[in-house]
Amino acid sequence: MKNPAEINGRPDLALAPELTDLVERLASGQALEREELIRLIDGRSPELAESVFQKARQIRQSIYGTDVFARGLIEFTNYCKNDCYYCGIRAGNAKADRYRLTTEEILQCCEIGRDLGFRTFVLQGGEDPTYPPTIIADLVRKIDRQFPDCAITLSLGERPRKDFQLWREAGADRYLLRHETYNSDHYAFLHPPNMSRDNRIRCLYVLKELGYQVGCGFMVGSPGQTTAHLAEDLLFIQDFKPQMVGIGPFIPHQNTPFAKEKPGTLDLTLFLLGLLRLIAPNVLLPATTALGTISPTGRELGVQAGANVVMPNLSPISVRSKYLLYDNKICVGEEAAECRFCLNNRLDKIGYQLVVDRGDCAGFVANGARSVPTTNPEAFLSQ
What is the residue extent of each domain of the chain? Predict the structure, then answer.
């Protein structure tokens, strides 16, 4: 298998002293300015990428060793009221084969996952109004009672503060809400008019205030994205200080307005994974399924670039092919055990190991302290 740097960038810009200095500054804990991040991303080369990956591996191993945390992903509904232009389960996709899992089916997925060694369950779905907040809270309580040594992560989109608080009090530990892009104009280009970047960011700060371990993240190579947009995403993450960051390449879905757009690239996604490890050393950083979709060894390369989380699918095989945010998603036909042991073997070959552990963010303290943006905080905490 190739080293992640071998498939990167432009050799004509190899190890320019200015770029090397920027990497060194990031690795030493210094923050970069927007223009410096733009120069670093635009100037990537195989040699520069390898420098980033080496430092990223050193940092992650100093904090997490060679452990890789497995999250059991349960995609329990593909209904969604939103119409995001890039998403295969968007409300406007009349060709989507819709489904909802029952509470009993979700608990059965958790039981299978617990027996396989998973200690985190990720309940993910579209923004499905059929599941009222009280039903989700009841589900969280049941999982918490039945599997008390396991962490519960929710990924259910934007909600009012009272819903987030109800689920936190019911026992939810973490919440994933990818911001997709921090730039307001780019956000508007990717989403319908009834959705706003400001509300998405406000939700993230509310979640953090409520004591969740919070995950944000963005697509790499999404339609209309520029290097400046990526720099703004990195600056937001630097300021927000999330416990988790999920990034993956944009992959088009055939039944969306962006069906004919080019996908994001492996090399840029890997480079950004490495930069994120330097910017946020303690962060929980997945090597995503999308990364494995665009390259047969994408997840292994992601781990070698600084990632330390993988998310095998615990959903019933009967519904996996229906939860398609993008085309050609991998592992839709594998049993949970098959997927788990396949990943274990893949990681073992590159010197890492899946561990039976909740995998909390290093140094996280759920103290409920207010954490607000440095500019205009009232706009994000007013609801």
Answer: 4-381
Domain 4-381's class? alpha beta
Integer-rounded Cα Rg, in Å, for the chain is 20
Percentage of residues of the chain with pLDDT beyond 70: 91
In which residue are the tokens 């440095």 written?
Answer: 374
Instruction: Give the chain's end-to-end CA distance (angstroms, integer).
Output: 49
Say what the pLDDT of residue 374 is.
Answer: 36
Per-residue pLDDT at 147 exceeds 70: yes
Element housing 176 (H / E): strand 174-176
Amino acid identity, position 336:
A
Q: Could you give the CA distance from residue 120 to residue 359 in angstroms, rounded to a whole number?
A: 8
Q: What is the pLDDT of residues 239-250, one digit of tens each?
A: 999 999 999 999
For range 86-107, the mean pLDDT: 97
Nearest residue to 41 via CA among 281, 274, 302: 274
Q: Give residue 216's region: left, alpha or beta (phi > 0; psi -120 to 50).
A: beta
Helices (H), 210-335: 227-240, 266-279, 289-294, 298-304, 317-320
State residue 334's pLDDT score: 77
Q: Measure the CA–CA gap between 45 and 82, rounded to whole angstroms.
A: 38
Rounded CA gap, 314 and 320, in Å? 9
CA 228 to each of CA 36, 232, 263, 278: distance values in angstroms, whole numbers, following the listed order = 10, 6, 18, 19
**Judging by beta carbons within 10 Å of its beta carbon (0-12, 13-18, 19+), is residue 136 exposed, middle or buried?**
buried
Are 243 and 174 contacting, i.e. CB atoms less than 8 angstroms apart? yes
